[in-house]
Design brief:
2 domains, 1 helix, 22 strands
Amino acid sequence: MLFPVMTRSPTVATIVSVVNKDPQGVVNLNYFTKSADLASPCIDEGIKQVSASGRANDMLTFDASGVFLSSEGGGPLFNDPQTLAPYGGVQFSTTNTGLARGFLIVDDGDDTSEGGTGADLYGEAIMLELSGGAAFGYQALNPGQDAAYTPGAMLGNWGGLTAFLGEILDFGLGMGSAGVTLMPPSEWTTRFFVTPVADGAGTATSQRDCETCSVSIYLSPDQAGTLAGVFDRDTVMRSEPFAPAALPTSAKNVVCTGAVDMTDILPQSVVNQISSQGGWGYVQIRPGTSGHVEDSATVMKLEFNLVNGSATSTISPDGFTSFTGTVNNGVWLRNNGTQGMSSF
């Protein structure tokens, strides 16, 4: 089971909840963390067991970043009685003590499951900004499919890698784009959290081999991704060609995991043209340019008005009525080709 977005800082907590139906009650955590820049590789912190209660149906909540209960390893939180499913003095949080981004793989220590479906584990995460109170959440990626850990690229209980609900943008399978709306950059910040994934077609053997996995990301007005840009709010295409180059100069290479702002993956001329109105387009994932080259990633869009992590900027959707409250809207982007998903 994969938690693709995790942040560690004194002002941001990543609250993780895991439900485990496996009768052995085993919960293993495997953090991959790095500095906040795009180019640095992740550090594999290794697999650590935090539970082996021998009981099914336990729920565990902890702070992956170690802000809460820092002296007790980040958990368990919310008055967990630990009567039937004790944890002992374990370290739930990452061992990274700096400003960090990362992803977390949670497994139950085996390749079997209830009914053979891989459905032993379920998880959710809340990204909580402490000073301003902003938050967004997401459901962990677990496609419910077991495979022997050898180590294999499959996810299942071991942290799997195929996705049935469009959660992974996969260029190699013709599903490397996702439609997205974009708020005016003059008032909003739109940020994309990108985590390359090992789908078995790249050079990484599994997600646990993804310290240097890389993908490229950019925005385009067309689903095929032949131009760099977007449509504005009034049907006009704002774009620049980049052929015969494989990627536009606005594309960014993301190693292991990282966050890029909308204005950083668009040509500056396009940013200027849509500054006060925003627009729409397609997030494009392409092969990376370093390390383990992959062409698949999870992408989450975050729209917010926080400035320097605490103060809030004024937002006025109609030009007359404004507010200065905190806005923090998160959306897990879905690809345009998975059966049952929109082909927009």
